[in-house]
Write a structure and sequence with these properties.
Chain lengths: 503, 503
Amino acid sequence: MNAHAHTRLRVVRAGIDTYQQPVVYMHRDCPVCRSEGFAALTRVQMHVGTQQVIATLNVVTDDHLAVDEVAVSEAAWAAVMPAEGAFATFRHPEPAASAGALRAKVFGARLDDAGCLALMRDTAANRLSDIELAAFVTACAGERLDHGETLALTRAMVAVGQTLDWGGGPVLDKHCVGGLPGNRTTPIVVAIVAALGHRIPKTSSRAITSPAGTADTMEVMAPVALDLTAMRRVVEREGGCVVWGGNVRLSPADDVLIRVERPLDFDSDGQLVASVLSKKVAAGASHVLIDMPVGPTAKVRSDAAAQSLAARLIATGTAMGLTIAVFPTDGRQPVGVGIGPALEARDVLAVLRGAPEAPTDLRDRALAVAGALLDLAPDTPPGQGLALATETLKSGRALSKFMAICEAQGGFTEPGEAPFQAPVLATRAGRVQAIDNRRLAKVAKLAGAPGAPLAGLTCALRIGDPVANGQSLYTVHAQSPGELAYALAYAQIHPDILSLEAP
Amino acid sequence: MNAHAHTRLRVVRAGIDTYQQPVVYMHRDCPVCRSEGFAALTRVQMHVGTQQVIATLNVVTDDHLAVDEVAVSEAAWAAVMPAEGAFATFRHPEPAASAGALRAKVFGARLDDAGCLALMRDTAANRLSDIELAAFVTACAGERLDHGETLALTRAMVAVGQTLDWGGGPVLDKHCVGGLPGNRTTPIVVAIVAALGHRIPKTSSRAITSPAGTADTMEVMAPVALDLTAMRRVVEREGGCVVWGGNVRLSPADDVLIRVERPLDFDSDGQLVASVLSKKVAAGASHVLIDMPVGPTAKVRSDAAAQSLAARLIATGTAMGLTIAVFPTDGRQPVGVGIGPALEARDVLAVLRGAPEAPTDLRDRALAVAGALLDLAPDTPPGQGLALATETLKSGRALSKFMAICEAQGGFTEPGEAPFQAPVLATRAGRVQAIDNRRLAKVAKLAGAPGAPLAGLTCALRIGDPVANGQSLYTVHAQSPGELAYALAYAQIHPDILSLEAP
């Protein structure tokens, strides 16, 4: 028994989303709160029936909450799933099993297999606080993970999650390192590769900080929130799928780490490699192509950085038993015309349909990526990947396959168009010198993407294109006049998102 | 202007204490929330009138909050102090000025003076999130701060806070590294040193994770929440004081760092030295004695660790212009009989009054510390510190001075006694082999200390003392029967807080 095990508090839902970190709210005069104290970032272990969660304690100082109640955040609620009127008991949590491994790494020791496993197990189970996760990410930053540690971390991330088994034979997959706005090649690549008879069970993410993830874009055209059984049925029938990975829980530790990695933005090749490859291995892939955009406002900013990251991806991927190649691409500017879920979906469909307005850069890149992936596969005649991909797209077989996949996932829907649109105009003439991917993505987000699926922007200009004074640089799309106004206000104070040089 | 500058939300008080980190709560359908997104740990900059604060965004998913309202945590409320019915506007915060210095340190560069200053300025102004603070602490952990960086960090901590000026002449001060339960020598040392005509303007902290801080203990006997003007008046009249440092804002950056240092518990000599010495320099001290308890459950666990830390304290202190000495003491077991604010105050008064029940270990240690501090002072005949201190205590001059200080701070009160008390009994005979300071402190906290000032425990046994079966090991004091029960339940499952060897 424990000092608080007999202190029962009635559980109420706080209705507060603290992202993934579980938080519990107690009245300052409640007995648990009094004895655990008002200390910095106190953690408590809450038990409800057979469920338990470790949460951060926040103290309620007014009378919204009774002294015999505990209010729980959405993440804590999801972890314990309390019945109506349930009671919770509390314990002071013992240090996480991985505390020793974390401390050793912080103080300069190397991570071994057991340490990585303990850390990823506690990470996936949400037993580490945000500040402990931040300490781990910091201790691994820069060059502080060597090849052996990267491999150990990749294995540990796979070990603590679900692993898919496709029953033998090659399983193809692709991944793009670092989001380039509009670079939505995945649905096209999957359609081409599956049309050629390969297996390509693709799981994709929703946007976290970008205006659209592949799952958001695909969802405009077909259901993506499939569970594992439904996903398997689609792949068995059509060879490929494009579903949201969130219901599948591949590499759940990585999903948790992201919550501190994104805001800290500490690049670490070792953690990036473990993150990418653990998901591919867990998804059952055997042949993997990595699309790596390189450019000043992309994730990988120089050729030297690209080479070093590619070497580590290939070394670790090979050690994990993958056939893997890295394909460097132009990361200086967006791809396609649309940025935002529906607008990117329209580009994807235009390419698949061979429509005259289809963006050539998106088509060419999708073909190049599909070709490089096909070149990895065992049955492709040497160097014939691109030709095969091009023929499959031109013949309409990729379009047919894509429609069949959408039907298998639950039915195809034609993307709609946003009711509010306004252009952003050039205030002088010139030639496009550079495009700020990050700020352009920000405009699309302020316009409502991805929450408002029709929102975003369209931009057909590319580096080197001439621009006349008063010409439209890009057009903002929004589902409400308010969101249109926010996006335009931001665009107005950042006139150099497309920077022009004198003509 | 900014994309959100025209989005005004009405400010309401959330009544939630998130410790020091400012948090704002917005409805998920509110325009600011929609465009900033549900991203991991989003930070927003809130402006109310001329005040502003950077806060973490939490999302409210039910209808407690209107879409045109923002609820703010206590720390955010204190930062902007909104008038009744005030409105707030929001911006996406630019990266903190110190982001570059933090990133460089994480990636292995040395911290220079400018980098330290930027980091401490942003830390003190609460512009860094908890995960950024955790990254900083991790990047400095172990031996990752060299002598030059320690000095730069100490200077930066002083520079961003208030500095007291006592107008020339020696100013004495003391500090104890790492809390040993009951080790409440400060009020006795201040009384002795001030009675001898020295200036000793002591600021102390409240408990953060311990059952009592010096400020909590002193507050049982006299007011301690004095502002700088009131503190100055006391010191001008009596030569010394014992006040709470929280109203004085010496080294405010350190106060913020503590919120992640405590839960992470990463020892770093460099940060400890900067923390301790920045407060002494800011308080205007010229002659400083550091009491350093050494023992297996104390902060400093070995003689080797003590020597290394002492060398760094002396090197940095000397470079900061202090006359400084380190005094290692026995850190294996508590000092005095009482643990908890009032119970420690009773020990202090018993020593000052020369009462027969006064704990000899507390008296001897207070005299030793006072003696060593006096030996540092310019006017003490060589080696006469201890004799002077002993004579001052015995003669009653220290008691008179202490009462005068209490009167000057607002009036003396005799500490009361807790209404609920129960002994914890030995379940076998033996001799006390070791005492677990941390768990003993935990019992006192579960009993209600320091929030309930009369709560805590009394323990007169020391290592080597014989114990009979059924004898009282220690007595728990509480202000409510419930808290008494919590403490006893914990004591019951930890029978080895005093571990016994066969007699």
